[in-house]
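Researcher: Sequence recovery benchmark, item below. Answer with residues only.
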């Protein structure tokens, strides 16, 4: 199994359209082709090893993902896989933890507002005994462009670690606490 996450280079404009001076932006969360990839971080279960991939070794991630089954992510079907495809790598997430959470809650596998809100990685991690995320995905491109490379890689690795902790809990128990109602369990299909 391989768990992965990406961070992007270009910023996402705020809902009100505001932009920071000196920061390059794409045209929003669906502009996958123009986002760029700053880093890909992964956890390789076979090697029991965290990995970091940047422009110089993206191809190595593609090779690792091709031989690792299942490929696991959090919102990776709708986001990470799409961005990666637009940058020359073909990966197919076989187990998207966010989609599995939605299905366990009796919802469809594609985001619909407002029924699908409340299932983010931060909320899910906190509902299941973790401290949660260490940052925000919309700040990672700003940090990357400002040269805060280590911060972005650290943030991406932590998202992978949070996803791994949740995946391990599913492997052990077949369930997670519902992030909207933490005292309720969701029975989740194991990867």
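Model:
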């Amino acid at each position: 199994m391989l768990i992965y996450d990406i961070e992007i280079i270009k910023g996402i404009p705020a809902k009100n359209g505001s932009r920071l001076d000196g920061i390059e932006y794409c045209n929003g969360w669906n502009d996958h082709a123009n986002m760029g990839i700053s880093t890909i971080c992964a956890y390789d279960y076979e090697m029991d090893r965290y990995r970091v991939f940047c422009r110089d070794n993206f191809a190595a991630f593609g090779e690792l993902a091709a031989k690792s089954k299942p490929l696991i992510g959090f919102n990776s079907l709708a986001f990470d896989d799409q961005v990666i495809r637009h940058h020359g790598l073909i990966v197919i997430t076989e187990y998207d933890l966010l989609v599995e959470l939605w299905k366990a809650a009796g919802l469809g596998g594609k985001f619909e507002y407002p029924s699908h809100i409340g299932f983010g990685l931060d909320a899910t991690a906190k509902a299941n005994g973790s401290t949660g995320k260490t940052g925000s995905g919309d700040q990672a491109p700003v940090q990357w462009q400002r040269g805060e490379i280590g911060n972005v890689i650290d943030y991406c690795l932590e998202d992978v670690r949070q996803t791994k902790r949740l995946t391990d809990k599913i492997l052990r128990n077949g369930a997670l606490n519902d992030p909207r109602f933490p005292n309720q369990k969701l029975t989740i299909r194991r990867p």
